[in-house]
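hey can u check if this looks right to u? its 396 residues, i copy pasted from the old doc so theres a chance i mangled smth
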Amino acid sequence: MKNHKDYILQTYNRYDISFTSGDGVYLYDTNGKKYIDMLAGIGVCSLGYSDKELIKILTEQSKKIWHTSNLFNIKTQEELAYEIISSLFPGKVFFSNSGAEANEAAIKFARLYGNKVLNGAYKIITATNSFHGRTYATISATGQEKVKKDFEPLCPGFIFVEYNNFEELDTQLKNNDVVGVMLEPIQGEGGIITGSNEYFQLIRKTTREQNKLLILDEVQSGVGRTGDFYTFQGLGIQPDIFTSAKGIGNGLPIGATIIREEISDIMGAGKHGSTFGGNPLVTSVALEVVKRIKSQKFLKNVREKGKYFKEQLTKLQLLYPDIILEIRGKGLMLGIVLSVTCNDIVNKSLSKGLIINCTANKVIRFLPPLIISKEEINKGISILSQILAEIKEKNK
């Protein structure tokens, strides 16, 4: 077989590793080497690998029916929508295949709402350093120039303000052509930057007063990742729209756009669609994932392990204060800000059997399976400590 570079479009800087199997929080490559996975497919495989119940459900469903069409009722889709909404607030769900698609649907709804309710208002305020996807509308909504570069002209209608700066946002929100705000509760690709409770509560109060939309992008931060079912619960607010994806399907492609019930009928029949979105195969598995993760016992466990993980990172910072400058994040969505670029650390970690990720050039991002144990956290920290010790010795 030819080299993959001969026939796969090179849109990723791939590591020369291929995984053949997984078990719990561990992955195994073609040579049988074992890795602790602290990335989980970029926050996707929340219940880890080879989960027996998920395999059973997938196998049983595959013998029945994989796909019909959204022209017909899909029982598992209806049950999944109920499981997502029932513990949050009254609303309705649109299912798609990814986080970018979920955000596209949210943007389309905002435009529709602006035309029907706010006299044609269409502009959406988003934040610098944000990331909302790779489609045309979502890169246009993204506040990172590296994502947009060379794709101009972009979709019009997005205003960028500094994250966590309410005054700047409030100034823009007063404009009559603004329909609402679209933000991540925690900026994941931007370097694990957390929005404050006060910031989001002020935005919620102001958007409600002006009858404008608050859209939260929970593609990365949702489905138990931060210790709440969705992060906005811990912020003490309810959005008009929120989006979800990564953690719902444990690796099967699914996205969801959830719209507050009072305004949901604006998106009527024929206004949006998805051929594959929410099909029986994917939603049968996602239903089990959501049921398990949303339980209070599971979420409490995530919070406890997140606290423990952060404590261990703090101890690591005390050992290497010149290298680790800051610890960020919540639950099991954590990051450490370094004084050096982190690509070399990622490569060295891989060589020692640890999968981590570098984002924003100098931030190591940790998004392990939510089932990770304290012992497995310790193993990962130990490997990282060895690498930082090597860097410290080299820089003497």
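The domain at 53-293 is CATH 3.40.640.10 (Aspartate Aminotransferase; domain 2).
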